Amino acid sequence: MAKTAKPATDQVAIHDQTLSRGQGGELHQTAEDGYDVLTTSQGTPVADDQNTLRVGARGPASMEDFHFREKIFHFDHERIPERVVHARGYGAHGYFETYESLAKYTRADVFQRPGEKTSVFVRFSTVAGNKGSADLARDVRGFAVKMYTKEGNWDLVGNNIPVFFIQDAIKFPDLIHAAKQEPDRAFPQAQTAHDNFWDFISLTPESMHMVMWIMSDRTIPRSLRFMEGFGVHTFRFINDKDQSTFVKFHWKPKLGLQSVAWNEAVKINGADPDYHRRDLWQSIQSGDFPEWELGVQLFDQEFADSFDFDILDPTKIIPEEVLPVKPIGRLVLDRMPDNFFAETEQVAFMTQNVPPGIGFSNDPLLQGRNFSYLDTQLKRLGGPNFTHLPINAPKCPFAHFQQDGHMAMRNPVGRVNYEPNSFGEGPRESKTRGYRHFPAEEAGAKVQLRPESFADHYSQARQFFISQTPPEQRHIIMALTFELSKVETIAIRERMVSHLLNIDETLASEVAHRLGIKSLPKAAPAAVATRQDLEPSPALSIVERGPKRFEGRKLGVLVTDGVDAKLLKSLTSAVLKEKGLVELVAPKVAGVTASDGSFIEAQHMIDGGPSVLFDAVALLPSEAGVEDLLKEATARDFVADAFQHCKFIGYSGVALPLLDKAGVEKDMDEGVLEISSATSATTFVEELGKLRVWGREPSVKLSSA
Ligand code: HDD
């Protein structure tokens, strides 16, 4: 109920009743004092929402209380089944802007006119965890984009990894059963570090390329804004003349790639399980709109025939160095949903939603997905009319003869609900404007087999590994060691090592050594005897594709009463100039009284703002303040964690004892910089663009056993 009386101008008189407009423009019944009147869902005004109708003040409830019964009934039915995968997600609205006409390749309306903007809704997700799981689970991230084009909705339902675990959709239920919590004990939640997952994986060599990706830092992104997205499969662009060009889709974040360290991820999950949601919410609400470029790899049949791998195999990429990614437009997210359930939860993505000009390839995973997505929406959304929900309805005109069913909101008007009809009513098919499937010539015996061209499971897995920088390779080794250390069945650990031997011997022996496996097992029998030695592809590294500056990142500044007001101001303006953010962490969340007597608000108390929430930290306590911080375990952790997570640390001279107490002073390196003036504050902030001092990592033993 609105707390303030509505001004008279907001009030409207309809049917002799005074009504007022709510936030969304909806009408409310208004009481004499101007308040919106609470009603039942039938519109009956409610007089008492605190007490059920009862017989006598201490007597039994009366069934007659229709308001109570309706309220509880509705509450009892609030939940819908969560998605069988990708249950935890977060979405936003925005637009896609086309750079240039692609009419030569595709008749897709969205790609015809340079500068044209198309509305989109994007939902990011984790895969394995339930709806309430934490954001920093080590997991693939879903990157699902719904474009409301003028010729129908186009759903590009991708991930932040360009390959997949399996080659055929028939294995999807097995993969997901194995990955999710084990069925007898219902744990672990949102983690693949358990026997069932690695048992399945180690018996599924086609997953080895994906294993390299999921054990890399790609699965612990710093922000949804700093990760790539991929359509994964090969699709088709189809032009006006019905000619086809193969296409792979890439989303590239404007602010560069960035992930966190595993030890950091574990702590972020405790400090802020909604870390990614909050980050997206804050950036959009503050007008700092996340942006990606859409890029395409375009190729013809001749390229496909000459390429080392089958372009229908979803466990393979085409390296960008072999076939460059051509930018064709940009995606900007600029509006959060008004209501999470109505939009983010009820949005129904379906791979088969394609407009004219976009077509499918014969990728067996894609073909299977085209069945699964429509089917799952019926279960989740309760009936065939989920396209009537505003988030799922096309924004272009549409006309068909589908009718009735649960919750039908749009029903045909008039007598005719079929075609053809001789009344001349209703929509008709159009050979020119309608969707035309690409007339690919297909022939062959009906068989159940995996083509030979899908058989090489190790070459690209190796290519991925050797394309990583040394810290990234260390992270893969440690991630594999961690995950397999949670596997209780020794034979499964060894089976995984036998696959790693086919990828990289050092990788295999490092993991085996850390797991305490005394003698290396034999390499797994490879379907293709000779592994190809492919050139490294630097585009596969996150570190190589980081940002150029601190833009969009957050500096956490630890302050106390007496903080040097001038220095803090210089530091803050240097960060803002780089388009970064500053948040203050103080002993009391209210804030601190600075050296010039001004009161400065803080965003966190020390316990609530550990350094894992920031990309870099600065320590600006006063001399008196540092004495108190030395007694605070949380202040020591703030510094020690920032150091072991290889972050840049700025400090004022008086903070040295705190660095000492945190065990950092003796190991100080080029990433720990003194801030004593406006100039040194600027130098510090310029350094922040490098994000991490990975060279520190071996010394802090973050990822070497
Ligand atoms: Fe899937 C959801 C991405 C393979 C069956 N998938 C789902 C979502 C994403 C993906 C991003 C969440 C959409 C949302 O936010 O609502 N899925 C992928 C990618 C795959 C993939 C990139 C491989 C390249 N998926 C895949 C297969 C199958 C499914 C092989 C089944 C044969 N996926 C589903 C589903 C879900 C889903 C069961 C669960 C909820 C939903 O569809 O709407 O149908």
Q: Give the strand tally.
A: 21
Assign an overall shape: globular
Average pLDDT across residues?
95
Relative helix content: 25-40%
> What proportion strand?
15-25%
- Within the CATH hierarchy, at the fold level, what is the topology of the largest domain? Catalase HpII,  Chain A, domain 1
As a whole number of angstroms, the C-alpha radius of gyration is: 29 Å
Quickly count the domains: 4
Write out the distinct hetero groups bound to the structure.
CIS-heme D hydroxychlorin gamma-spirolactone
What count of helical segments does DSSP give? Answer: 19
Q: Mind describing the biggest β-sheet?
A: 10 strands, antiparallel
Question: Any idea of the CATH class of the largest domain?
Answer: Mainly Beta
Going by CATH, the homologous superfamily of the largest domain would be: Catalase core domain
Low-confidence stretches: 1-8
